[in-house]
Design goal:
- This protein has 276 residues and is of the alpha/beta class.
- The protein has one domain (2-221).
- It has helices spanning 2-9, 223-230, 236-252, 258-272, and strands at 12-13, 18-21, 31-34, 38-43, 48-55, 60-67, 72-79, 84-91, 96-103, 107-115, 121-130, 135-144, 150-159, 164-173, 180-190, 196-205, 210-219.
- The strands form 2 sheets. It has a 9-stranded parallel beta sheet, with helices on one face.
- Helix 1 (2-9) runs antiparallel to helix 4, helix 2 (223-230) packs across helix 3 and helix 3 (236-252) packs antiparallel against helix 4.
- The chain is globular and about 55 Å long.
Length: 276
């Protein structure tokens, strides 16, 4: 994790329980909060920002995010220890929130997103890698409370050994939230017969002019692809590793910070060596 530590040391550290990001903030340099127990983040109208939250200790954390009109936030949450985190996101009109969640240890992450202003946009890309007897949970509740909002979530899971992974997703569309566009997908790979992944995407819709979809898959590795790679000189372990990297790489690199994305990819590769 040394590379990741070096990268994070160059970000602006969040030193209190409240972070107000205004027009005078430097949008180039991201903010970072390490092991916050409680944090409220406010992004002013028209401001773009990036925030990274890292959990290195097994603690409970509560985060709240408020995006004012036309604000944009690239939010990345990384779990390196068995932490429990609850995050609420409230979005005003035309705001955009792009979330990336990576769990490299047992963790429980809960997200509640409220789209409260027209043309607000929310997206979440999540990944959990569970080995041994680890238990990883991603719980996402996205509420379309007004018309003309969009949301998109893709959560991928990999589990081996006796590990358990869970994705629980709910897209709620209020009665007057017409012209909602919502997509929710979960894709998962089991690496052993004793591992288990439960994926439960759900829709709760009370409007009639909407575009909403959801789906989930849980399967094994692609045997034909592994055979193809072995025929070209790769060992079984190398072939499996390449397939998993291809499956999960798009999530870890979507954080919007190239150096951090590469560090997460390296950490993912090291984690995969422990998954059987």
């Amino acid at each position: 994790m040394a590379a990741m530590t070096d990268i994070l040391s160059g970000f602006r550290s969040v030193g209190s329980e409240r972070l107000r990001i205004g027009e005078d903030s430097d949008a180039v340099q991201p903010f970072v909060a390490v092991d916050p127990a409680k944090l409220r983040v406010e992004v002013a109208a028209g401001v773009s920002a990036r925030l990274v939250v890292v959990h290195k200790k097994p603690v409970a954390a509560t985060l709240s995010v408020l995006l004012e009109q036309d604000a944009a936030l690239q939010f990345t949450e990384i779990f390196l220890a068995e932490a429990f985190a609850e995050t609420t996101v409230m979005q005003a009109a035309r705001s955009r929130c792009c979330m990336t969640v990576v769990q490299l240890a047992s963790a429980n992450a809960s997200y509640r997103v409220d789209l409260d202003g027209a043309h607000a946009e929310s997206s979440l890309g999540g990944l959990f890698l569970a080995a041994g007897e680890e238990h990883c949970v991603i719980d996402l509740h996205t509420a379309h409370n007004v018309p003309d909002c969009s949301s998109d979530s893709l959560v991928k899971g990999i589990a081996g050994g006796c590990a358990v992974g869970e994705f629980r997703g709910l897209v709620y569309v209020a009665r007057d939230a017409q012209r909602t566009d919502a997509r929710q997908q979960s894709r998962n790979i089991l690496l052993s017969e004793t591992a288990r992944i439960d994926a439960k995407p759900q829709l709760e819709i009370y409007a009639d002019d909407v575009k909403c979809s959801h789906g989930a898959t849980v399967g094994q590795m692609d045997a034909d692809a592994i055979l193809y790679m072995r025929q070209r000189g790769l060992s079984p372990a190398q072939a499996r590793r390449l397939q998993i990297e291809g499956f999960a790489g798009d999530i870890v690199r979507r954080c919007g910070i190239d150096a951090l994305g590469e560090a997460l990819a390296d950490a993912m590769s090291r984690k995969m060596e422990k998954i059987r």
